[in-house]
Amino acid sequence: MRPEIRELSAKYLNDTKEFLKDIIAIKSLSGQEKDVVHRIREEMEKVGFDEVRIDGFGNVLGRIGSGPRVIAMDAHVDVVDVGDPDLWKTPPFSPVEKDGIIYGRGASDQKGGMAGMVYAGKIIKELGLDAGFTIWIVGSVQEEDCDGLCWQYIIREKVLDPAPEVVVLTEPTNLNLYRGHRGRMEIEVETHGMSCHASDPTRGHNAVTDMAPIVLDIHTLDEHLEPTEFLGKGTVAVTSFRSVSPSLCAVPDKAVIHLDRRLTEGEDEEVAVGQIRRLESVQKVGADIRVLTYEEPTWTGLVYPTKKFYPTWTTPEDHPAVKAGVMAGELALGERPVVDKWVFSTNGVATAGMFGIPTIGFGPGNEVHAHSPMDQIPVWHLERAVAFYAAFPEAYAKVTAGSTPAKLR
Q1: pLDDT of 348-393, one tens digit each?
Q2: Are residues 173 and 196 in the same domain?
Q3: Is 42 among the catalytic positions?
Q4: Domain housing 92
Q5: Which of the following is catalytic: 43, 55, 130, 143?
Q6: Domain total for the chain?
């Protein structure tokens, strides 16, 4: 592995930091990423990418090299909103660097990964590390609203053709190497009643009363879900409860709960919906169950509907992608990275979960700071991440020498 990679990641650290601060300062909620996408395009062109384009979904894609084998690296560039501004010690969209840490919304999740990839691309090009590969650096959009939808578009619409044989996600991993995470679903359960004046509830049928035992049964179901060795336990949680009635002086005729269902290995849509459907409380009142659909427009105005079922995925620890990640991590960190998994969900639900593309993750920042008012990234993480992304193509070439992309799936 090239020792110059570490030297150049240190040399370009200040440029990487300043670019990161620029994109943190651009508020880019899901569906509002236009300005940050164009700023990223500008930086890719500035550092010498071979091609930069924006697809119909609104993703920005930068290419280095033109070899027959395709590697993609991805960072989503949308962020969640601020929440209560009084909880922030620094302005969320005016990045602050203090004591070796950069603070601001999106610093960890995941504009740090985006900045790191762009300057890794500069190093790859300078050192000729793209030999035999086409490397795409992707700034994807709308992930916070609908993880993986951006990559459904990229693969199904053949934005990248051929599709990548491996994908590196740059979500925060605390500089560990991640190879999977639980899937997830969004489910609604609905009960129906008959409204009447609340002065005499016996004249009607209260949909909320029917829903109450369902909520308790779902809590019990969560407690009894079985863990698996690597990903651990699936979960199901009631995250919203709403009702409909003619007025606050009337018995509700409809009640709806929203479920966040996390799926471990061996669990899928059929398993998760079946568990809810078989609950005695659900059957007793004939409650309706539905998996929700996402159909919000991107910043380009495109609507690309998808069911809110995001599959579980893992990449085997002995897979060449993981082995190459370990090798690149050793160069970047000076020691073997910890191989683990995310707690939250990523675009891997599409790349690996839907399309079977071997996927790994390595990112600066710690996921515990994602979506929090302490959103932050250590500067030294940024330098190590640049080195990892620059080193990965050469490492992957070494561990896959003599193999064809089809055999690596």
Answers
A1: 999 999 999 999 999 999 999 999 999 999 999 999 999 999 999 9
A2: no
A3: no
A4: 4-181+312-408
A5: 143
A6: 2
